[in-house]
Amino acid sequence: MNSKQNLMLAQVLVRNENPENSFELREVPVPELKPGQVRIKVSAFGLNYADVMARLGQYRECPRLPAIIGYDVEGVIDDVAPEIEEFKKGDRVFALTRFGGYAQYACTDVEAVGHLGADAPVGEGTALATQCITAYHAAVHCQTLMKGEKVLVHAAAGGLGTALIQLALWKGCIVIGVAGGKEKTEYLKKLGVQHVVDHQQTSYLDYVRDNLNGRLDVVFDNAGGSSIKKGKSILARGGRIITLGAASISGKKSKLSLIKLVFGFGFFSPIGFLTKSQSLIGVNMLKIADHRKDIISHEFQEVQRLHEDGILKPHIGKVFDYTQLADAHAWMEDRHSIGKIVVKW
Length: 345
What we know:
Elements: E1 7-13, H1 19-22, E2 23-29, E3 37-46, H2 49-55, E4 72-80, E5 92-96, E6 105-109, E7 113-115, H3 124-141, E8 150-153, H4 159-170, E9 174-179, H5 182-191, E10 195-198, H6 204-211, E11 216-221, H7 226-233, E12 235-243, H8 255-265, H9 270-276, E13 279-282, H10 285-291, H11 293-308, E14 316-321, H12 325-333, E15 340-344
Parallel strand pairs: 8-9, 8-11, 9-10, 11-12, 12-13, 14-15
Antiparallel strand pairs: 1-2, 3-4, 3-6, 3-15, 4-5, 5-7
Helix pairs in contact: 3-4, 3-11, 7-8
């Protein structure tokens, strides 16, 4: 803890601007422990695209500024509420936070915490807490991947894409990974992806039509907008689209851009899904964490087990020091990242 009693350092979001001007390193009070919570001494926190959206003022869930954002941390337990038995001071853990992650200490509900092995590299826990939990919810909880199904993953070289691929391969699926550039496509091949599509060179729609009989069983989509309509055009009977965000709006602040995004999604009648036995599933893990603690608790236990069994193996693309937060945000916003971006204290 900071030399001044009950104070800690935090990277505080103070304005919605470019990475260099948006954050200030401040001394702030250490968060107070509430019933049902643990407090974690944070060794590292992760970056997520929602952080970039919050910094740009485009994320409606973001608290009023100044705010400490951040969804995932890893570290050791500093304190626990009296009724908690499954964690004790000194345990190494990974955790999902509802903001507050960009700080030296963070409190969170015990349901959103998992044990992290002593040999796990720095940053793996941050990816487990968001990307792997999200991937498990999307690929296992919301629907059932069957052996041999054709599964397309957008932004496949990112942290979430990596986790979705690992789960789909574990289930015996045929994976189509979509990413941009040689470095990312080579990474996907090393993961074992059977069909790698460089969207800078080839349309994934054309690839599916030319190589996979024009139909997919599952589409994991985090772009939103017109990408959903495109996915439905190549969806097989019994197919599922899992929508995980709207990254296509990133960097576009005008109301016209937002309107285009909304209309880009299209307007679907339930009859169209019913007659083809298709599904459109939305995933928002903040809402699950807020309203279904039983689900989050189960998923943390399962992700912990899959990590220990070697099924989920997060890839840490780049680690920044806490003094380099602006560089980390710029790196993510420019889409340089492969795997998870991590900031350590």
